[in-house]
Amino acid sequence: MLTRITFDAAWTLLEPQILSHRRTLRLASLRLLSSTLQDHASDGLKEVVDKCYEGEQVELDIQGVRERMLRITRVSQLVRNDDAVSGNLCIRWLIGRSVTFARGTDTESSLQRSRK
């Protein structure tokens, strides 16, 4: 029998992973957080997690730059002043994405190019 994990328990475990420079780790963490939100009271938090997840799915390459900027703007518009968890998640995700961009390690294609 599967045990259902609450958002708060998942957030405690996955909060550091959202800051990761590894896209796959951030993507998996956001997917898991999104799946735990059915029972969470805050609809705003669900929207923020979903938008971060959608934004994480956009590849960081020349074609994806515009799409990425649109998604980042949408995420920042959803964060409310009274929701600390949403703000924390948004900030951590943006920092993780920024570190990834600076390191140039975001896309799988960049890994494949470096192996050739």
Could you explain the architecture of this structure?
By secondary structure, the protein is mainly α. It has one domain. 67% of the residues lie in helices and 0% in strands. It contains six helices and no strands. Helix 3 packs antiparallel against helix 4 and helix 3 packs parallel to helix 5.
Summarize the structure in short:
The chain is mainly α and 116 residues long. The chain has six helices and no strands.
Taking the sheet with the most strands, its summary is:
none
Assembly annotation: single chain
Total domains: 1
Rg (CA only): 15 Å
- What structural category characterises the helix and strand content? mainly alpha
Strand content: under 5%
Query: What's the tally of helices?
Result: 6
Helix % is: 55-70%
Question: Residue-averaged pLDDT, rounded?
Answer: 77
| Number of E strands | 0
Unreliably modeled segments: 106-116
Question: Secondary structure elements and their pairing?
Answer:
Elements: H1 7-14, H2 23-35, H3 43-57, H4 65-78, H5 84-103, H6 108-115
List keywords for this structure.
disordered C terminus; 116 residues; mainly alpha; 67% helix; 6 helices; globular
